Each structure stands twice: as structure tokens, then as C-alpha cells.
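Aim 2 progress update. The chain analyzed this quarter is reproduced below.
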Amino acid sequence: MQRNEIAEWNAVAVTFVAYLCKQIEVMEVLENESGIDQLPVTFTDEAVKEIKRIAISENISQNQGLRVGVKGGGCSGMTYVLGFDEKQEGDQEFLIEDVRIFMNKSHELYLFGMQIDYEQGLNTRGFVFQNPNAKKTCGCGTSFSA
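Predicted C-alpha cells:
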């Protein structure tokens, strides 16, 4: 490797570490403010309406909440998780308009600042994820790389 290539890789590594440190600082502030977890993901009014509609039509138990997360897979490397589930160890719990939201704390790094919308148009029908952390997304919008 040439010296200039090593310097470029060092600069990339320093930038990435600074980004991770900033994300950790943001998460700690959110966690410590008033002892109440603040949801790192937002939902539009249309998304909340659809989530409530599904919960009622599927007769979702009061013990369950909407799980928001990520998992490996999809054509871009990671795919979004959005579905009703029981609270698991390591989950944070949030409340949006009487809807319980569960998110594993480790997923915040990939989802912080994301907005979830619900669209019923001719070209798009379903939940739409606007993730500022996604560096690349697939055509269907359900998988991404960070």
C-alpha cells in the first residue's frame, strides 16, 4: 500500500469513529433525559392510523407492541423489521398515540432519525421508510446498507 492510500484509509477510519462516538452521545442524551425513552424513529399520522387499524383487525394482544428494527438480508445488506411482537430482553419501549413500540437498543445506530410513513398511491402502497442513515437502498425500499 502506498502512503497516500494509508493516509486515506486512516482519514476514513477517524471519520467513522467520530460518527460512532456522536451516535453514542446522542443515544446517551436520549436515554438520560428525564428517564423517559424518546423514540429515535418517527411515524407520520398515516402510519399511526394504519398501525392502529392492523392492530384492531388482527386482534393484537395488549401484551404486544410494534417491533421496529433491522436484520441482515435483502438485496442491500439489511432489511427493516416492522411487525407486532412481545417485548424482548434488551428492548426499549416507547409509546406513540397509545401504540406500544419496541426496539432493540442496538438497532438505534441504524434507525436514528428515520421516519416511517404509510402510502396508498398507485405506485406505492404500504409502509415507506425514510432513513437518513441509509447509504444505499434497493428499488423496493425495504432493504438498505449503512
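The chain has one domain: 37-145. The first helix runs from residue 3 to 32. These observations will guide the mutagenesis experiments scheduled for the next reporting period.
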